[in-house]
């Protein structure tokens, strides 16, 4: 620590305030004029600052709970589920019991405190206790050490961090925009290929182009009976289909012999279509697997089509299928959605050309996704390196010099 800096604790430089929640089933406690934030809402924010909240408390709500509004320019820290979300409130703001409020004293700048706490999220998590989920107590938080430079130096460090992180945010946004553009290009080209359907293309239902077409099986009740799981047979669920990229290469669960006996083992290459929960998502099995009746399986007739072509074809009309499944309760589609619906099937040679084009575009998108992931990791590491420099006393000179050094 640099000369002139003081070794303090969070409790030395801040007043800690606990949160609270009035009864959620009492309408009179809600919809008032008092801002009230939760860890879930904090986690969705891109800015360090919070001026409004999704839910508001009434005067009665404030009176009938332990929720306490913080003065503006305080720091709110989520202390459970998860530990480490941070915001600076620009208006008086209360929060639920999953947060701790920190009112900075005269010796600490609110933005300096915000950045410092963000630099030690791992330490805060390590201090959390609990079996169901970790929670950071107010007592532990008060004991957390914090280096405290003179106020002018704190403000200089904050200015350096603001400038550096603005550059990181711009680089991240640019990478995200490039990735979004690539995905839009692929989706547009995918739709265009099938919109340019030729008069010579034969139209037929999926069942007509299949050797096997039907819903998966999971007869046993309850479906989550532990005695069905833990064997060698992959069990694919709607989430596995949704999370795949054209091919389903992993499963989150497996069936044992008992599970297999009440299900059906579909062969590698089967096209999977989700019809409940995550509807109209598609993927191709990369291995033999079982799946429940919330997934349709199609084993293609190789004399008529290929699994790659069918998966791309279904992806091109995904929006239409989702629209067909809109319901008052849970969205869903079923076998009947496909029974009478004809799809275009060109000659196999034309199908192969379409698949080759889309595979090339998909490969380019995956390369951009890999690049984005690497860039995101590098930028996250850079951010942490800059924070480490800041709070070890290495960012106390001119902004431009230290930004270059970082």
TrEMBL record:
EC top class, as a word: hydrolase
Highest taxon of the lineage: Bacteria
This enzyme's EC code(s): 3.1.21.-
Domain annotation Type I restriction modification DNA specificity: ranges: 3-166, 217-365
Native source organism of the sequence: Acidiphilium iwatense
Transmembrane segments: none
MF terms in GO: endonuclease activity; hydrolase activity
Tagged with keyword Magnesium: no
Lineage: Bacteria, Pseudomonadati, Pseudomonadota, Alphaproteobacteria, Acetobacterales
Protein family according to the UniProt entry: Belongs to the type-I restriction system S methylase family.
Keyword tags: DNA-binding, Endonuclease, Hydrolase, Nuclease, Restriction system
Protein name: Restriction endonuclease subunit S
InterPro entries (UniProt xref): Restrct_endonuc_typeI_TRD, Restrct_endonuc_typeI_TRD_sf, Type-I_RS_S_subunit
């Amino acid at each position: 620590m640099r000369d002139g800096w003081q070794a303090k604790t969070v409790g030395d430089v801040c007043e800690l305030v606990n949160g609270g929640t009035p009864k959620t089933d009492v309408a009179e406690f809600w919809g008032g004029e008092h801002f009230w934030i939760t860890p879930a809402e904090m986690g969705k924010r891109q800015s360090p600052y919070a001026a409004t909240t999704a839910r508001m408390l009434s005067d009665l709500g404030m009176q009938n709970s332990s929720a306490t509004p913080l003065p503006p320019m305080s720091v709110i820290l989520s202390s459970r589920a998860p530990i480490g979300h941070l915001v600076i409130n620009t208006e008086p703001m209360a929060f639920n019991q999953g947060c701790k409020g920190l009112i900075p004293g005269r010796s600490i700048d609110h933005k300096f405190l915000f950045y410092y706490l963000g630099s030690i999220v791992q330490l805060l998590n390590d201090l959390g206790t609990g079996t169901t989920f970790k929670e950071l107590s107010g007592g532990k938080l008060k004991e957390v050490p914090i280096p405290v430079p003179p106020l002018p130096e704190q403000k200089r460090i904050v200015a350096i961090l603001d400038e550096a992180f603005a550059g990181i945010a711009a680089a991240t946004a640019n990478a995200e925009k490039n990735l979004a553009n690539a995905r839009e290009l692929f989706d547009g080209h995918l739709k265009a290929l099938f919109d340019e359907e030729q008069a010579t293309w034969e139209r037929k239902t999926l069942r007509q182009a299949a050797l096997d077409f039907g819903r998966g099986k999971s007869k046993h009740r309850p479906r989550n009976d532990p005695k069905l799981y833990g064997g060698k047979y992959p069990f694919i669920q709607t989430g596995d289909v949704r999370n795949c990229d054209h091919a389903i290469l992993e499963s989150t669960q497996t069936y044992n012999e008992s599970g297999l006996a009440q299900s059906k083992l579909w062969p590698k290459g089967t096209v999977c279509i989700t019809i409940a929960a995550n509807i109209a998502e598609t993927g191709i099995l990369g291995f033999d697997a079982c799946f429940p009746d919330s997934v349709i399986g199609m084993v293609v007739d190789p004399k008529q089509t290929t699994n790659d072509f069918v998966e791309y074809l279904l992806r091109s009309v995904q929006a239409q299928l989702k629209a067909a499944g809109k319901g008052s309760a849970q969205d869903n589609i079923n076998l009947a959605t496909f029974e009478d619906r004809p799809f275009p099937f060109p000659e196999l040679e034309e199908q192969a050309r379409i698949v080759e084009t889309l595979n090339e575009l998909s490969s380019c998108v995956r390369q951009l996704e890999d690049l984005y992931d690497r860039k995101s990791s590098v930028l996250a590491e850079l951010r942490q390196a800059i924070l480490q420099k800041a709070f070890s006393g290495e960012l106390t000179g001119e902004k431009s010099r230290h930004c270059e050094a970082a």
